[in-house]
Amino acid sequence: MAYQVCIDIGGTFTDCLVSNSKGEIAIFKSPTTPGEFEKGFINVLHVAAEGYGLSGADFMREIDLIVHGSTVSTNALVERKTVKVGLILTAGHQDILVLREGPRKGAFQWRLNYPDPYVPRHLTKTVAGRIDARGRELAPLSLDDVRKAAAEFRGLGVEAIAVGLLWSVVNPAHELVVREILEKELPGIPVTLSHEINPMPREYKRIIAAAIDASINPIVRTYIEKLKTALDEEGFEGELLLANCVGGMMPLADMIRKPIYSVMSGPTLAPMAALALSDEPDIIVGDMGGTTFDVSALRDHQIIVTPDSMIHDDSLGIPKVDVRSVGAGGGSIAFVDEGGLLQVGPRSAGARPGPACYGQGGTEPTVTDANVVLGIVDPDYFLGGKMQLKRELAEAAVDKIAARLGVSREEAAYAIYTTSNHNMVAAIEEITVREGINPRDSFFVCGGGATAIHIAEMADILGLKRYMVPRFMAGLSAFGGLISDIRSEESAVLLTSDADFNVGGVNDALARLKQAGNNFLAEAGVMPENRQFEFSFLGRYEYQSFEIEVPFEAEDGIVSEDDLPGLVEAFHKMHERIYSIRADNDVVEFTAWKLRAIGKRSGQDIWQKNTLPDQVGAIDLKARRGIYQQESGRVETVPVYELAQLRAGAQLAGPCLVEAETFTAYLKDQHQGQIDRYGNLVVNIA
């Protein structure tokens, strides 16, 4: 029996979802191994093999495909543990990364230190030579300047180099020559060219993307090589794909060429899962793991891709699925600040030592400890009983907060619980209310091992009407990987306008993009009949500073003069949707053209064949458990149900608890749940 596997490495646990040829899915978890993620990767595969009653070697031979969401590059950037990068720019323009695009600040941040550039000035070198906006060579490239820069980089111990010359997106000749020289002068040092990694006209975003890509290139390459070696040693002979930040998968060779696409790739899989699980047009996805709470949104049943994601003070440069994160996970540490106020996160106990109740040496109170004290989490049934939690250690940790606040243990635990909830609500409002969207109109899909414990109170605060607790909620991102497409984005710069539309130039650009997309999908082994292409353009009103992205239809990748009114109207509508205004009489400029190449994978929809039979008769009660209720100020007994025993159509009424091997769901009063045909719990709030 052949298996397909997705492995998602989180801050505390590594999730493994396995799908067999019948579409049956099983979830397995193993502690994450920080610093040696490949070990946790192999460990969870061994856990899965044991779950199927197979040896590790036999299980590996039965796996056709492994898809993987990696956090290696994200961790390196967040923790500022990247390699030393040298940067080569056009003479006279050495401050592109210093000036950025004018950093934005909050209304009350009236006193800020100007952030340092991503690449320090002493590692930034310039070379003479100039290409203009039309691709003409105004001044020849100085080969001596390039060789001098290489010699200086050698003395400085540079480990990777980024090259960003003006207008290389129109004529890349100078950047290509620079790479040839650097490869001769500094063999073995990876070189990233800005026109290849992020072909767009804006210098800052193009060059910051090149600098970030270079800074993580050796790290990602090393991780992939270690992972591939570990899998080879285990006897794995199938295909390995890696998640990218545009909501899909990439072959290893492509990820090695463009490692920046691995940044924040894991969290992008959760909205892909929600896309498959629900037909609702507007969806909020909340994924609470051990370290962070990741929130994303779907509008008109479409993934939202943002061009403005940030890493510390710098833009990532490339587009990515819009996912926002806050330090609110099960391992987030609670403390009382100097003003006597309770705070939760962003510091986390992580996988080592983990929450106090894990018994691995942690002593500080965490959200998980609070949930144990409240009675929501059963210490004897954590991970289906495979991991025993220690209630007495959780109580000792929470008692520290109780003593500081002068309240009872249960009141302190609830304070931690609700503070964490409000932190997550703020993150949800950031991606909804602040984007002009009313969260009450959205359907919420829970992800991560802890979200279902907290969603009931968050739903009441936000005024949500419905939410879903997926059957594989604890591995939602991994499920997203199992059902995701192979995806890549390509772009080309071509400035034109509706006043003088260059239809020939546009079609030439679209043809090049489609060819590049076909090449990518062919290398990934996608058959022509399984290939799809989505087109968009970057447009703006004349004299506007920034563009917006607008999707459009192009049959066979060709546009005509007759299509121009439709393109212009699509821009007006998108501009009105984003900014609430449109200027029908203004000139519309088109600055760049984009293509998303999508390859459907064999077997990615097989999970839909595995449906539940209808519930017959009353549902079985697993147990009753006392949980602390803030409204009454005392412990009250509520019914507990086992998710695996519920069938399609089974109905639940809160307050109650629903337990699965990898998560617990808490339904409050007025929360009415029903199991759908795939085993997901869909909750309506009266």
From TrEMBL:
InterPro entries cross-referenced by the UniProt entry: ACX-like_C, ATPase_NBD, Hydant_A_N, Hydantoinase_A, Oxoprolinase-like
Sequence ranges assigned to domain Hydantoinase A/oxoprolinase in this UniProt record: 206-489
SUPFAM superfamilies noted in UniProt: Actin-like ATPase domain
Hydantoinase/oxoprolinase N-terminal domain ranges (all copies): 5-185
Acetophenone carboxylase-like C-terminal domain location: 506-678
Record protein name field: Hydantoinase/oxoprolinase family protein
Organism annotation: Mesorhizobium vachelliae
